[in-house]
Amino acid sequence: MKELPEKTWAHPWEETTKALDVSLEDGLNSAEVKKRIKLYGPNRLREVEAQSAWSILFNQIKNLIVVFLLAASGLSFAFGEVVEGVAIAAVIVINTVIGFVTELKGARSIEALRKLGDVLSRVRRNGAAQEIPASGLVPGDIVVVEGGDIVTADLRIVNASRLQADESVLTGESVPVGKGVDPVAKDTPLAERTNMLFKGTVVTRGSGEAVVVGTGMDTELGQISSLVEKTEDEITPLEKRLNQLGHRLIWLCLIIAAFVAVVGIAVGKETFLMIETAIALAVAAIPEGLPIVATIALARGVWRMARRHALIKRLSAVETLGATSVIFTDKTGTLTENRLTVTHLSLASGDMEMGGASGGGKEPSTQDSIWLHSSKERMFREALEVSALCNNASLEGKGPDGAIKATGDPLEVALLVAAEKAGIYRKDLVEEMPEVQEEAFDSETKMMATFHKRVDNYRVAVKGAPESVLAACSNVLMDDGEQEMSETDRNQWLEKNDELAANGLRVLALATKGVDRLNGNPYENLGFIGLVGLLDPPRIEVKGALDLCHKAGIRVIMATGDQAVTARNIALTVGLVDDHDAKVIQGKDLARTEGFSEEARRRLLKASIFARVTPKQKLDLVDVHQQDGSIVAMTGDGVNDAPALKKADIGIAMGQRGTQVAREASDMILTDDAFPSIVHAVEQGRIIFGNIRKFVLYLLSCNISEIMAVTMASVVNAPLPILPLQILFLNVVTDVFPALALAAGEGAPGIMEQPPRDSKEPIMTRSHWLAVMGYGTLITMSVLGALALAVFWLNMEQSRAVTVSFLTLAFAQLWHVFNMRDSQSGFLRNDITRNRLVWGALLLCTALLLMTVYVPGLSHVLKVANPGLAGWIVVLVMSLLPVVISGIYQLLAARRTTVS
């Protein structure tokens, strides 16, 4: 490899490829790639600095809980209570370690999730096209680009067809820049280097090939971002609300703690004891752990989604997913398998049927013999030649299982497979008629064209939407020549198109012509060849997913660029609609409802099928439903879908067939392009929000029970039912482990049988606050009741009586986790009892509580005495009372609801 020209844009591209020692047709070989990776390193900008473990540790030390604990420890030493001072210091260490480990796990989970959606680049290596992670690009790689791709390295263009790029990220210029292959002057500014593509920019139109001339920090983008970046913490709306809730509760808890201290001192209790108790109550009551546990819940839920083919790019999307009420879905590949097979050819000479599998399936052996035999017929061969020529896909042989390996759009792969079954190979055709220019597919024209050099002229091959191609045709090709296309002929072909589409086929039209020059309009005076029918079977699992959406109160709307009859056929097959006369609104009708009158708006809100819609019209439809108060999820795959994906509350990009621009604009990427994955993600969104609500309710009701028990005992001048160090111990034990177990729950089975929640609904509604007070009161009464029984019935001394009330409170809080079950579920079999982590947390906490009684050193520090058999019976009965009473209440409430 020679040294690159200093300014590659100022030299012919042939000089660049020669210097990089690369063949345009074959690309680099594997051995050379390995050498260059070692020489240049991976194609990445300087690594983003992750949040360090030291910064996470410092966050634990500087929080409010540690401040209070340090104050309590200092007071202990000041009053000569050395053992308590040391014990509180130990609590600081334990609390810090738990917080550190939990937050570190959450931070690392989020960092790992960010790496899941690595951008791919299509390159030519070892003579074949293949997709590789962008980080594996090296100087000299031949990259194939098309509209919708994100440019992943600095490239010198060697071939361009209507190529344009949005370079605003580098130049600030929002207007797309036209691209070509001709050299420009050495002093040309960055914004005017029309033969270059730069890392981080976006291909907005057309297609082309280019050679990599700069990677990683050696790119223009790398020079700009030479300073080390630091990750900004992503704070979701949910976490913001949890923070706000925590801050409000802090002041309330401080006021209550101060009140407890003042009342206790006023009634004659020891000053140090009451101050220490007040500090311990404040520490226990402040829910500082809520955001951390929320992060763990979000990260765990996102991992579950990733395992089911849904990659979440922004954590904030998880909360919105749970409130989704409308899903706009494409047809091809989402409701269908995107496993296209050419099954029908309709030519002027007649129709022909064909069975078989697509490019992704196994090649048939005998059933397509008629297809091969027909290759001798002129029109049949003409149709398949145009299918193979006007095509950007490539077949790469067969895998071990006999399946055909391919790269490119599934539709184009299916066309290549059909041609090869008739013995027509694109490679042979291109050798005979080299491709010299391409008019890339355009969503407005709905057509694509390629120019191929013949001896004395150029052959133009065109494929596209039947109505568009027919409108551009002036002749019909016949076996014995061609004849002028009349309006009657055109209408008959359109009727034939409708007939094929009504049978569930995706239909393309083919056309061709010969021209003397390249700069003419490829879409005029074409010779019509015929129609190709491709079968794309509906996904079997879609029907069940749609039924689940209907039960969950979620509307599913199809918005496709395909024909109305095809869209209705698929919608009926998968159960999206059940009426054969279901209204289909077409893009041409939407164009006439400019401004959307109230009547038009109502009509749009009722419709479930939209056909032949443009990306701009998808954007308008999203807006209509959002103005109606819906939370809208929208699928998309093209570069022009990006505005609608951004506009939607949840933008969902296709991972297999989607453009990189669509993926960047989205909140979620489907790695399998399947509709059921969307429904599963919505279900997980609901589960995550429900889990967060459960552990918030659990923590607050446990905390309020401690405050109420100490406050009421202080007011009536009774012995404190729980001592300061015991409060701190419970804060570490019963708060953390059961809450984490609740955060990891898999949700109630009937969660998708409930309507979507209001997106503006707070985490804690009025009914939840009432539940907090109700649960807190029940636990408080059981604790004070246990204390009274120990003193007046069992005649225990104060230390043993306080031990009984302490253990009653601890176990009541542990059993309280079962009150967090879904109100519609059974008492014994529910989402809580099925959660293995809950049982693990209960076993661990029970063991720790037993240690406080039977481990001498720990029992001395916590001032816990053995309560004896009678004391344990009181603890067990009184701690179970709250969960039994609340369970009976829930059963009665559910029965009243059923009866009414």
Please explain how this structure is put together.
The chain is of the alpha+beta class and 900 residues long. It has four domains: 1-217, Calcium-transporting ATPase, cytoplasmic transduction domain A; 235-302 and 685-899, Calcium-transporting ATPase, transmembrane domain, CATH 1.20.1110.10; 310-335 and 539-673, HAD superfamily/HAD-like (Rossmann fold); 343-531, Calcium-transporting ATPase, cytoplasmic domain N (3-Layer(aba) Sandwich). It is 48% helix and 17% strand. It contains 32 helices and 26 strands. The strands form four sheets. Strands 10, 11, 14, 15, 16, 17, 18, 19 and 20 form a nine-stranded mixed β-sheet that branches. Strand 24, helix 23 (642-647) and strand 25 (650-654) form a beta-alpha-beta unit. The longest helix has 41 residues, at 675-715. 48% of the residues are buried. The model is unreliable at 226-234 and 356-367 (pLDDT under 50).
Keyword list:
single chain, 900 residues, alpha+beta, Calcium-transporting ATPase, cytoplasmic transduction domain A, Calcium-transporting ATPase, transmembrane domain, Rossmann fold, 4 domains, 9-stranded mixed sheet, 8-stranded mixed sheet, 32 helices, 26 strands
Q: Which secondary-structure class do the elements indicate?
A: alpha+beta
Strands, total number: 26
CATH architecture of the largest domain: Up-down Bundle
Rg over alpha carbons: 35 Å
Which residue ranges are poorly predicted, with pLDDT under 50 across at least 5 consecutive positions? Answer: 226-234, 356-367
Give the biggest sheet. 9 strands, mixed
Strand percentage: 15-25%
